[in-house]
Amino acid sequence: MNAMKQHMHKLLNCLSIVHKSMALGDQPMPLLQSIDYAYQELIGHKAITLFSCNCHSGDIERLYTGGQLTGHPAGGTKNMRGTEWGIRVLEQKETFIVHTQADFDRCFPTQSADVAKNNCPSCLSYPVLYDGRCFGAINLLHEANYYSDEMIELGQYLAPLMLPALLSGAR
Asked: How many CB atoms lie within 10 A of CB 37?
């Protein structure tokens, strides 16, 4: 099987897993856990954080954290208005990527110590978009220079599947 067919097969399997999780009760945790699993299978991560976002105020809230990072539990909030990440993800509604610890330190100074300790400074962020607004974001973390343009494209298909958790207001 060539590489493109392998990627498509993996993507379809991941989409199926997330789709099936939507039918389960006690949401949003089954959905958020399936998104974590799907991103791990599709492109990989050492840690993942799923956020709800208020694109008007710039406030984001952690709904789910998985993987190696400690000290970043669900429920934490911060304002990202005017930051490099906030401009790119919340305002421009684009995928955001940093590759190295120096990039991470510049963009996310309050998280840099934990990220450095766990050797996962490469960050790939997908906005979760609907109706012209950014309702949430998915941040994947891995070792330096891990994420490629091909991975960026593959992962974008999973991000909108987080919408039910965001639009239902379930936390």
From this structure: 16
Say which residues have a Cβ less than 8 Å from residue 167's Cβ, sequence separation at least 6.
130, 135
For the stretch 11-24, pLDDT in tens is 999 999 999 999 99
pTM above 0.85, yes or no: yes
Three-state secondary structure call for residue 66: strand
Q: Token digits for 111?
A: 């998280």
Distances in whole angstroms, Cα of residue 118 to Cα of each of 69, 78, 102, 137? 7, 22, 15, 22
Cis upstream peptide for 127 (omega within 30°): no
User: Which pLDDT score, from 0 to 100, does residue 171 have?
Assistant: 44
Could you tell me where the DSSP H helices lie in 46-162?
84-85, 101-107, 112-117, 149-155
